[in-house]
Amino acid sequence: MIATDEKRQDPASGTARPADAADGVDIKCVGLTKTFRDFWMRPRVRAVEGVDLEVRRGQVYGLLGPNGSGKSTTIKMILGLISPTSGRIAVLGRRPRDVASKQRIGYLPEESYLYRFLSARETLDYYGRLFRLPARLRRERIDMLLEMVGLDAVEHRPVGEFSKGMQRRVGLAQSLINDPQLLILDEPTSGMDPVGAKQIKDLIADLGRRGKTVLLCTHQLSDVEDLCDRVAIMFGGRVRAEGTCDELLEQEDRTTIRTAALPPAVVAEVRGVLERHGIGPVAVERPRRRMESLFLEIVEQARVEGARTSGATSGGRVADFLRSGTESPDVGVATPVGPVADVTPTAGVPAATPPVAPPSGTSVATSSATPAATSAATSPPPAAQPAGPIDTALIDRLTNRQR
Question: Collapsing DSSP states into helix, strand and coil, what is residue 299?
Fold first, then answer.
């Protein structure tokens, strides 16, 4: 059973608004269940069972679980691609299959379904037309998105020649062209190098600060810790744990004291104090940077030294039209379901930010962490090569041959 469009009065305008939208809830699932049946309509697989979710506006919400846990089925029901066996769903205050809500949703599937013979610019223009964006608005948004994802220097190359990471960048830009309120991202950093993955994470965090709602489905648990306001962990079709990262990860039976580097004599004294209180064993160790931080530091240093790359660049700032606290104008009807929904990914990579080393600290006593790398301006991208002149003599020969 799908949720009905319960209405409430908007105190500002006096008009009726969907209840969940007025409450600031962009996704609401209650008792969501999906059972797949065989040819004789006998229950075969219960993929989702009794799932309750609430994703509020402006949250980055992580949906985690091993393969086969029901994440993809849940996302498809939220998008209206399949119907639940029972339960209620409201997406942006409407039914999942309400066409009007599709105008404000961006979806990045796990695989980027792109037309390989179209260029990056042609791909974005094609999907801008599906949303019936005016020509001038399409051009402005395409320019901003290509710069944002670092593909403006290769915008005329067919996407079939791109690496998987560059295709993901196109897919991310593709679904942001309609300035969606709700982003559903399925493995957004799949196939990306650490620099691209960092840029995607920075973009997601920035969009959350701008008031966008992000439902993030990923197997990269470090991404979840860095980005998500709340997390739900699924297994066997059920939500087994739900809460903030701090609530889920805090170890109540451990205490960590972080301080600057201590000389051996002080460490020995601290050990003695703890032993007198019957606390032990005590582990004293030096903190370590994350591999991601070291990798990004080396790459940024190479850019400072003027090293160039033939791939995607660092990207620019977040596109201006992805504004905060506003909704997209009703410029057309988005494609609701079916093949087009499968090829409407979700967008964008911001400018790279300098990696920051994790705070120093150890169990009981630690040394301070290595300083973070400084940011650096990237080198300008190479200009696109113009097309060569048309060989009219060759055309004449071909025409005569056909005659």
Answer: helix
- Cβ distance 40 to 31 under 8 Å? no
23/10 Cα distance (integer angstroms): 11
- 47 near 65, Cβ under 8 Å? no
Residues in the chain, overall count: 403
Q: Which residues pair with 213 in a beta bridge?
A: 182
CA gap 275, 141 in Å, rounded: 64
Amino acid identity of residue 165, one-letter, is G
- Quote the CA–CA distance of 170 and 192 in Å, as a whole number: 12
Peptide bond connecting 336 to the previous residue in cis, omega within 30 degrees of 0 = no
Question: What pLDDT shows up at residue 290?
Answer: 60
Residue 53 β-bridge partners: 29
For residue 44, what are its two tokens?
A: 């075969």
Amino acid at 305: E
Residue 47 in contact with residue 237, Cβ under 8 Å?
yes
Beta-bridge mates of residue 18: 7
* Most confident of the ranges 47-56, 302-311, 383-392: 47-56
Q: What is the DSSP-derived secondary structure letter of residue 163?
A: -
Other residues' Cβ atoms within 10 Å of the Cβ of residue 44: 12
Instruction: Report pTM.
Output: 0.64
Model confidence pLDDT, tens digit, residues 73-114: 999 999 999 999 999 999 999 999 998 888 899 998 888 789
Check if the beta carbon of residue 370 is closer than 8 Å to that of residue 356: no
